[in-house]
Amino acid sequence: MRIFSPALKVLSGGYTAVELLLVLSLSALIMGTFVVSLGTLSSSRPTTSSAVSNPLDAARRSNYYFGSSETVNRDTVIAPHYGMMAQAEELREQFQTDIVSATAIFCIYRNGLNAYRPHNIFYDPTLHGELDTPQKFRAHLISIGAVNASQYLDYRNPLNTAMTKPAENATIFVLSFSKVQNLFKVLSIYEIDILRITATTQVQGFHASVRRFADNPVLLTMPPTTSSGGSNPAGSFVAMAFSSGYEVFYPPSVPRPDPNKTAEWITDGFSPIFITFERATRLAFSEGTAIDRFKLAAERPFYFIWWPDPGARNLAQPAANSTLDVSDPRQAYNHMGGRTSFMFTVPMFPAL
């Protein structure tokens, strides 16, 4: 019986021509398969290095990244982008850490750019009422003169129609314990902005970003002071600094759209950014089906929050709106399912 062994073949004089041809044929087959597979993977993989040149004007970038080197003009990567996905994951972890340390969280829709990033917020329990909803928190900021009435929107959840969707900009205030009487400590502020770019002189699409602002170590050397009355006390406003975030550019869902026909991708977008579920006990006061359908929380109100996903190719909306009845809260947000991996269930007042 003949036993084939490479070692014996080498000792006995080497391989035969047939055996060499067989080995070469197998090698060629394996290498060919590998090259084809590599080519397929390379051609089908998401873009990871393309970028759009300076999609933000100087004023907007300065507002987005106030107090950091990010204010200089720079390119924005095009989705999907896995490097930006890593930054988004880091921000998700930071957000969850902030939530655990919070005493209250308020999500508010916003018009335009955000210019209010305080270190402390004046609040006197003998003068001001309970802040148990984002609407009351917004009204409080207006009453103390911190913001004007047009800065943040008074919004109680959307319907799932093109005419009732909320703004694609939002601010999340994460409040914490304060050592100073009559002042709320702002632990962090998160800003979400989805900017639709339709100008024919620019690359059309969406610039999306999520940014975190936190304590400014330089300005914190200025101790806050308190005062009586309903106005914002001198020294309590200390601007927070940009801490971290991510940004990505989404091209239109329509391949090679006509620059003069933005209606081709008018349904693209990212809304709602959050939904508020209020206490069920608030059903004692009827406000109509559109609002009452969200009063489902047993004790503590909570949010569903969505952030844009750098791993998504575009911000295409589903072809049709929800067929659920308007009495069902899912009618307002079920189209967000599967659109992003950054979805949060956040209590308005965490039970710590």
What structural class is derived from the secondary structure elements?
alpha+beta
Number of domains: 2
Low-confidence stretches: 1-11, 40-48, 224-236
Strand fraction equals 15-25%
Task: Name the helicity range.
Answer: 10-25%
Count of DSSP-assigned helices: 6
The succession of helices and strands, N to C, reads HHEHEHEEHEEEEEHEEE
How far apart lie the N and C ends? 78 Å
| Shape designation | globular
The count of DSSP E runs of length 2 or more, i.e. the number of strands, is 12
Average pLDDT works out at 82
Main pleated sheet: 6 strands, antiparallel
Computed Rg: 27 Å
Topology:
Elements: H1 6-12, H2 17-44, E1 51-52, H3 58-64, E2 76-77, H4 82-100, E3 104-109, E4 120-122, H5 134-143, E5 169-176, E6 183-197, E7 205-214, E8 241-250, E9 274-279, H6 289-292, E10 295-297, E11 302-306, E12 343-347
Parallel strand pairs: 9-10
Antiparallel strand pairs: 1-2, 3-5, 4-6, 5-6, 6-7, 7-8, 9-11, 11-12
Features:
352 residues; alpha+beta; 2 domains; four-stranded mixed beta sheet; 12 strands; 21% strand; globular; disordered N terminus
Structure description:
- This protein has helices at about 5-10, 15-45, 60-65, 80-100, 135-145, 290; strands at about 50, 75, 105-110, 120, 170-175, 185-195, 205-215, 240-250, 275-280, 295, 300-305, 345.
- It contains 6 helices and 12 strands.
- Strands 3, 4, 5, 6, 7 and 8 form a 6-stranded antiparallel sheet that branches. A 4-stranded mixed sheet has the order 10-9-11-12, with no helix packed on it.
